[in-house]
């Protein structure tokens, strides 16, 4: 099998005034035709910068250097040195011979051009065909990536599609010109388990059919084990270990690799605490067995009073069509949902995208108007409370959203973002006391006072999420809704955040509604789990019973789709 790509001593430095940040440090790797190399590591390890370097997409102040980046061009039938290629040469390679699927399809697609036309545009540019021919080929590509009603999807705009549909559009665009190398940068992050599984199978099918090589970037080792042939583990801009998939999972050599493998919550046991990478820094390693607990924690709440209850809760949305947004009927996002949560209990909500999980969480907090039903909080019916009266309850009921960056004001420092909440709710009085309370909250989530003067863009995803947790805890809530709050974080940061939430839950006896599509996360955090489908509760049980003896065929389907490590 001929070698497709050879990279030798690739380095990328970012020059910021007098500061030089080494993002990539002399890394080397090879890929053959038909082979998949997975690059894994935490956020900031250099995975995405490596991919962008291969496409000559690293912008100033970044500086890329390499002894060699040799690409075997099938279409030109020659070896191209990408590190020395001109802009004109790269224009013929990008999207044509080396294609890339980016992590966030919504930000990668043009919101004002229909999905079909965006794919057709690439075909017209590289294949020199007419617009009519490009449309026919685009619809055929949409069918190939298993998009239902491909001809209608052609005329849809990105905001009209689900996350899984948008990602399939991106895959169609990437494979439109039959590339020799496909770079997939976190293509399944934040997708539900069934969509994730189908996207991975689609990539494998396309690769088998075309024989292309693939670089698959991910922080999820369960996902990687289902698609990779060999794995390169990155940390702080360096490749610390490279080996076949089998050797990496069965006999990891580097402590960092061992840490990444241990960070993902297991489905079959209940841990008191998740291991994180730092636990493996010591020579003795981390005693995972010492952190097991087999007890069914749901039994702890049998004698507790119901703290929050919903009775036949319903939320309807109008369907609209056309540029004049004409009414096209209604659909029930939440359909007669009745739940009970005991004081100090964590109830998980599982389900695919569009099942109604987030709408349910927002409806309970009255952030989304109800169509029907009741919400009873701590024995009081709060369903009909006016906003002015409900505002007093906001201190007791808080939410942590999925995307921490959009939850924070980019023009406000971290300190000011927390101080604003502390001051508004009069938690303490006086500027000095407010600042001290802010520092205390930061320390509570594992950050020091130096973060007070930083802005959101200066923080990692995990750090931003900690700020959102600190801000939610500032008002000393009794009930906390966590809406996919770790879904976009890498496994090590995710483990750290989940440990923080669990510790705070124990310390303050918080009652929580934990929404996630990741069943392994729910298994670690939750006492009971309710599975949602099409706005209804499909099944509800203790975490242990749900995983060991699922009753609903839909729950069984979700469990079967969980990508545990497969070697």
Entry summary:
This protein is an alpha/beta fold.
Description:
It is a single chain. The mean pLDDT is 87. The protein folds into three domains: 37-57 and 83-251, Rossmann fold, CATH 3.40.50; 297-396 and 476-561, P-loop containing nucleotide triphosphate hydrolases (Rossmann fold), CATH 3.40.50; 408-474, no CATH class. The chain has 21 helices and 23 strands. The chain is of the alpha/beta class and 567 residues long. The chain is globular and about 75 Å long. The chain has a six-stranded mixed beta sheet with strand order 7-8-9-3-10-11, sandwiched between helices. Helices cover 34% and strands 27% of the residues.
Features:
alpha/beta, six-stranded mixed sheet, 3 domains, Rossmann fold, globular
User: In one word, what is the shape?
Assistant: globular
Radius of gyration: 25 Å
Provide the CATH top-level class of the largest domain.
Answer: Alpha Beta
| Structural class assignment | alpha/beta
Helix content: 25-40%
Strand composition percent: 25-35%
CATH superfamily of the largest domain, by name, is P-loop containing nucleotide triphosphate hydrolases
Number of domains: 3
Tell me the strand order in the biggest sheet.
Answer: 7-8-9-3-10-11
Secondary structure: elements and pairs:
Blueprint: E1 3-16, E2 19-32, E3 36-40, H1 47-54, E4 62-65, E5 68-73, E6 78-81, H2 87-93, E7 98-101, H3 105-108, H4 115-127, H5 131-144, H6 150-154, H7 163-175, E8 181-185, H8 193-210, E9 213-218, H9 221-224, E10 230-235, E11 238-244, H10 245-250, H11 255-263, E12 270-271, E13 292-293, E14 306-321, E15 326-342, E16 346-350, H12 357-364, E17 372-377, E18 380-381, H13 387-390, E19 397-400, H14 404-407, H15 414-424, H16 431-444, H17 461-473, E20 479-483, H18 491-508, E21 511-515, H19 519-525, E22 528-533, E23 536-542, H20 543-548, H21 553-561
Parallel strand pairs: 3-9, 3-10, 7-8, 8-9, 16-21, 16-22, 19-20, 20-21
Antiparallel strand pairs: 1-2, 1-4, 1-5, 5-6, 10-11, 12-13, 14-15, 14-17, 17-18, 22-23
Helix pairs in contact: 4-5, 4-7, 5-7, 7-8, 15-16, 16-17, 17-18
